[in-house]
Design brief:
The protein is an alpha+beta fold. It has eleven helices and 17 strands. It is globular and about 65 Å long.
């Protein structure tokens, strides 16, 4: 593996010397995201493997090109998992891409994000220097937490070569409830009420099924924790929903697991574009933000903090103003099939304010002074 690592370092150094731009790529499962994808592809999949795994210490160290599915399988053998449930989107997702994207699954609001589980990282900066930050325990973090800064950087600061992650045991018990007949507002109110109680609420999702006859609203909740706590909460939460006139059904765990995975991977029916001219937008807002008065289909997760909707790129200004009015932001997650370039011209992310722009510019200057990783994937500044 030293030869593969040296090859990556040499590639970055050569690009810096020749003024070329490199686009870091693992499985390419997230190529749909970003403002633009320019630069020569540098494939990271050759540098793979689990460096060390200590189940008793709840920590694993993995190389960037390791398939995410391979890591998850190794953890499952020991009854452990990545609690933040990173989405794959399709086959081939890698650990490096998981960290670089910083995307989390259904349990994000309860267990935290990818960055919360990064203990340390090694990466190659824009000068071809192989740097190490953090370690394998939480107390190693001091000063600027550079290793966690790599989470969500989308390959614009450096090439992550190795990462140490905190893992957690799989919960001893789990249950999922399907609650029918609650509109989005009452469903969120119920979630907020549950959130203030000692209940093992782990994930939630609300959606309106327009294919049903008649059209129906569904709230899905997942409970995880000790068996007694899950059983007690299932009874209580079911009774609360029934008291609002909703219908409650406990789902089969195997079927529910597939649905929750599909939710994170965006393979549910909602995530099929309703037309060729609409984009998938992500609204990140406070959980208690009111239901937006918008004529678009919604899929709401994270107890209300993440709201997906299909709308044309022409709605960009209105969506961003709405999100900002409640202290959140809106991003264009997937462009339309008909005119992706035009859609992305409206801006993938909410524009940064002057302070944020300066911080981002300074970070990029420090980590990548030659612009080797300046592919334009993040919003131009």
């Amino acid at each position: 593996m030293d030869a593969e690592l040296n090859s990556l370092i040499d590639a970055v150094r050569a690009a810096a010397a020749q003024g070329r731009t490199l686009r870091l790529r693992g499985g390419g499962t997230k190529d749909f995201w970003g403002h633009s994808l320019t630069g020569e592809v540098l494939d990271t999949r050759g540098y793979r493997g689990i460096v060390s795994y200590e189940p008793s210490e709840l920590v694993v160290t993995v190389r960037c090109g390791t398939p995410l599915a391979e890591l998850e399988a190794a953890l499952a053998e020991k009854g452990q998992s990545l609690a933040f449930e990173p989405p794959h989107f399709s086959e081939g997702a890698t650990v490096g891409g998981m960290v670089a994207a910083g995307l989390s699954g259904p349990a994000r609001a309860t267990v935290g994000a990818v960055r919360d589980y990064v203990l340390g990282a090694r990466f190659i900066n824009g000068l071809g220097e192989h740097l190490t930050f953090g370690g394998q325990v939480m107390k190693n973090v001091a000063g600027y937490d550079v290793s966690r800064l790599m989470a969500g950087s989308w390959g614009t600061l450096g090439l992550i070569t190795e990462v140490s992650l905190k893992v957690l045991p799989v919960a001893p018990a789990e249950a999922s409830l399907m609650i029918a007949g609650l509109a989005q507002g009452p469903a969120l109110d119920l979630l907020h009420r549950w959130g203030g109680q000692p209940l093992p609420l782990n994930a939630s999702a609300w959606v309106r099924d327009t294919t049903a006859q008649p059209i129906a609203d569904y709230l899905f909740v997942r409970l995880r924790g000790a068996a007694a706590a899950v059983q007690s909460a299932t009874v209580k939460m079911g009774a609360d929903a029934l008291g609002l006139g909703a219908q409650v059904q406990q789902m089969d765990n195997a079927e529910a697991a597939q649905d929750w995975r599909a939710s994170g991977d965006q393979s549910l029916a909602f995530f099929e574009a309703p037309g060729p001219d609409v984009c998938l937008w992500r609204l990140s807002v406070p959980q208690t933000a009111p239901v937006p008065d918008l004529p678009y289909p919604f899929y709401t997760e994270w107890h209300g903090a993440q709201r997906w909707l299909w709308a044309p790129s022409s709605a960009a200004v209105a969506l961003r103003e709405l999100a900002q009015s409640v202290g959140g932001h809106a991003s264009l997650f997937r462009a339309s099939a008909a005119h992706a370039a035009v859609d992305k011209a409206a801006g993938v992310s909410t524009p940064l304010d002057a302070v944020q722009q300066r911080i981002q510019q300074q970070l990029q200057q420090q980590f990548d002074p030659k612009g080797v990783f300046a592919t334009g994937r993040l919003q131009p500044i």
